[in-house]
Amino acid sequence: MRPSLAPEDLLVAETFGPTVQGEGPSSGQRALFIRLMRCNLICPACDTPYTWDATRFDLTAQARPIAAAQLLWWALGQDAELVVITGGEPLMQQRRLVPLLAGLVQAGRRIEVETNGTISPTPRLLELVAQFNVSPKLAGFGAGMSASRRIKPDALATFAASGRAIFKFVLRTPAELDEVADLARSYDLAPVWVMPEGATAAAITERLRVLADPVIAHGFHLTTRLHVLAWGDQRGR
Ligand code: SF4
Q1: What is the pTM (predicted TM-score) of this model?
Q2: Ligand 1: distance of its center to the CA of 67 in Å?
Q3: Long-range pairs, 59-63, Cβ under 8 A, ≥24
Q4: Topology (CATH) of 9-166
């Protein structure tokens, strides 16, 4: 049975922190995380399938409807200026997010939203979010999905024009950098960050070493996954 969702509720997988933002330009900053349920993609290498994959998880057991006011109360009770909204695909609940984000901004918190870049943010969301970490899925990571499902030009154009987006690509090999460069050129995506795929410190480190020089040669930024280096694939870190 689906959990009933009141108009003021968000469908949440988990809240955690303070921890650190592990990826991208804010890497290392103290942060809280609010992870929302549901996704509109089905990436085989997804590291949070419990937010969307009903074939492997009991989503009813994973999901908690939580009122925006309760999430706000929790976040404001923690010692962290940065609040990261992640998923799943959090923009699937973007209208429900507005009261929470408005309360956080009013209290002086900085908000990052992590998104796969397939859903255009509303103007109100664009006002409230300091940074969108947009992660379009490459053919390898998003294997089994058509390009037209993974890449939505209108949504990417909105993010690119916002001045509030960074574009983060998850790579397995340097050969995928040409695909990143094509996307960046086609849709004016900048700045571009490249991150190695991996759920263990060993996998991340090995791929980072192989990717580092080619990423720099392409003119892109490089990020690791700090939380994986520190805590492996522990959930809620
Ligand atoms: S877009 Fe993100 S959350 Fe959704 S399936 Fe892909 S990796 Fe998982």
Answers
A1: 0.97
A2: 24
A3: 60/1, 60/2, 60/3, 62/13, 62/37, 63/3, 63/11, 63/12, 63/13, 63/37
A4: TIM Barrel (3.20.20)
Mutate to test the pocket of ligand 1, among 59, 91, 137 (most ligand atoms within 8 A of CB): 137
Ligand 1 centroid vs 134 CA: distance in angstroms?
A: 12
Residue 117 φ/ψ region, left for φ over 0, alpha for ψ in the -120 to 50 degree band, beta for the rest: left
89 lines ligand 1 (CB under 6 A): yes
Q: For the chain, give every domain's residue range.
A: 9-166
CB 37 within 8 A of CB 98: no
pLDDT higher than 90, residue 2: no
Tens of pLDDT, residues 58-83: 999 999 999 999 999 999 999 999 99
Q: Could you tell me if the CB of 136 is within 6 A of ligand 1?
A: no
Please name every residue paired with 222 in a beta bridge, in sequence order, or none if there are none. 194
- Asked if residue 98 lies in contact with residue 78, where contact means CB atoms within 8 angstroms, the answer is no
